[in-house]
Amino acid sequence: MLRGLSDVADDYDLFIFDLWGVMHNGVTAFPDAIQCLQLLRKHTRCEIIFLSNATRLSRSITAHLSELGIKENLYDKLVTSGDVTASIVARRAKEQNRPNRPKYFHIGPERARPTLDACGGQEVALENAELIICTGFFQEEEEVVEDYTELLKSALSFNLPMICANPDIIVNRGNRIIPCPGTIAAFYEKLGGVVERFGKPCPAIFDCVFAQHTQVPRSRAVMIGDSLSTDIRGARQADIDSIWIGGGIHVKDLMMKPDGQLESDKIREVAESAGEKPKAILPWLCW
Question: Helix/strand/coil (H, E, C) string of 15-73?
Fold first, then answer.
C-alpha cells in the first residue's frame, strides 16, 4: 500500500494512466490526480501516457479533458480504444484491397460517428452487414443489455462477428453506474456470438503504446488504473507492473473507508477473486 505515487516515481520511465476512475469520474476531474501529474512532471523526466477504453477518437477526448481542467501539458500522448479500433479496421481493409469495406452494422450512440468514419467502410442494415461494430448502447442511461436480445439473436442468424470498441463492462459517471460496450459484447458471446475486442486488457492497445516508445524497456513501465479486469489484467498481459486505484469501480468491493483506509486482507481477497496481483495499491491517485 503506497502513500502516494512519489513512493515509486523513480522506478519507472513510462507512466500509463487510465482516465475514468483515476483522473476523473466523467463529470469532475480529481484535484489530487492533477496535482500528482504536475509533481511527477516536476520531479522526473518520465513519459506520461493516457490510455483509455473510450470509443471516441483521442482528439475529442483531449478537448473533453481540457474542459475538465486536465490540460495537454500534463501528458505526452493520449491513446483510446477508438483510435486502435479505427486503425486496425482500416488497415485490414487496405491489406485486403477492399477500400469500400467493411459493410458493418453499428450498435452504439451517434457520438461515435467520427470513429466509424475513421474505420472506413459502409454502414448498412443488419441483413446486409458482414460484421457488427459495437461502440455502446443506443441509449446507455435508459437501456439494459437484455433489450438487445432479439437484435443480437438476429445477428447470430447471419453469423456476424462483432468488433467491440470498448471492453469495459461498467463505468462510474459521477455517482451513477453506466453500462459500457463490453456488456453487450459479453452478452453476445453468451448467446454464441464471436467477439473481437480492441482496448484494455487486449494486447493491441499496449503494443500501440510501446511501438512509439521502443527505447523504454517494459520493466521500466507501469500502468495505473482502477479496473482489475481491464487495467490490471492488461498490464499483466503486457508484462508491465501495475498500480491499482482502489477508489474506482471496486470501491464497494474493497469496502474502502471515506478517508481512503483499506484493509490488506480485503485487498488480497478482491484481487485474487479476479485472478490478478497488482504491484501496489493507492486509494486514489495522489503524489
Answer: EEECCECCCECCCCECHHHHHHHHHHHHHCCCEEEEEECCCCCHHHHHHHHHHHCCCHH
Which residues contact residue 199 at a Cβ distance below 8 angstroms, ignoring those fewer than 6 apart? Answer: 53, 81, 84, 85, 164, 165, 166, 167, 168, 205, 230
For 256-282, the pLDDT digits (tens) are: 999 999 999 999 999 999 999 999 999
Give tens-digit pLDDT for 214-241.
Answer: 999 999 999 999 999 999 999 999 999 9
Q: Which three cell numbers stand for residue 133?
A: 461494430
Number of domains in the chain: 2
pTM to 2 decimals? 0.90
Domain that holds residue 187: 97-197
Q: Does 234 reside within a domain?
A: yes
The CATH code of the domain that includes 168 is: 3.40.50.1000
CA distances from 125 to 88, 191, 196, 259 (A): 22, 21, 20, 51
Q: Which of 151, 166, 197 lies at the terminal end of a domain, its last residue? A: 197
Question: Are residue 224 and residue 191 in the same domain, yes or no?
Answer: no
